[in-house]
Task: structure prediction
Amino acid sequence: MLADPDTWPNQQPAPTDWRCRWRLFRNRLLADTKFQQWAARTPLVRRIASKKAVELHHLTAGFVYTQTLTAVVQSNLLAVLQGRIESTKSVAAMCGLTASAAHTLLTAAQALKLTEEVSRGFWMVGELGASVLGNPAVADMVKHHQVLYRDLADPLAILRHRDKTGLRDYWSYVPGGNNADDGHREYSQLMSSSLALISDHILETYPLSDYQSLIDVAGGTGNFARMVKKRHPDISATVLDLPEVVSEAKNQFPRSDIRFVATDMVRSPLPQDVELFSLVRVLHDHDDEPVVSLLTRLHAALKPGGHLLIAEPMAGTAGAEAIGDTYFGFYLWAMGSGRPRTANELKAMCLAAGFSGIREFSTPIPALTRVLVAEKAPARR
Result:
């Protein structure tokens, strides 16, 4: 359950383990130049060899792809093409580029399915471009990633010196960060845009119609709570977060029917006899020790039979392993706090905190968020 490798039991595979022996043989074969040449000209395996070569190129060129998306967002290209067809020259004029530069961007974006050339020199939004337009969180994340990419310019440096990253200073709640006051507004905007779709998935997966009250822990400016109120107007919703975030929320929503309470979830007293707590994209931002402490305190604050809803992207999600382990692994390392966890790790942490009856509910897109619900045992009769 702990991230420190020094605490892990010794589980070195036996030298006779056939799986390891096969993988060592496979790796020697794939690294052999003569085998690579044979595979490239042999009909039966040529297609596989070609696919592997493309996958390898994607790994080496991935940063160029992300920067192409960044250029699309910064140039406002998708908004220029939204709902219409434009010529290369017209796009160039509206995006402040030369015609040849616009052509380079448009063709690069087309390969990523962000744009589409419908006839020579005339363009419209592509399949993925339409999805970007329909999800404002993507553009907000692209803008935010400029901080992460500066850190990743020297990835070994941040692996060796986790306490010296720009991303650490971006988030107000990270220990040791130096976030300025104006950073809270950027934080609130990013959370607001990225939570809309995820909140829908959570509430489709686990409707709250059977509850009378909800306390959303570290709920920011109330984005999830507002989605809950929209679906269940009669539910009483309270948001706990840091004083500066609560102040921002009250300024943004002075007439909100959501109650905001300034609370440090790690140190401040928690409300007692609670029916339902929620943690939406909270636990993966924090290291193991504060997570276990928080879960224990939430368990104590729940009434018997009460529930804790946990929703976040998780490591080991089938088909999305690179999102959990690669993206969030490096992102949270650069942030200076937290790590991606598997559903089983989170279940084990909940059990250690005293919870029982921990269930996972299947979400529409597990890569974006998975949902666990843990119960505090009902009182004995």
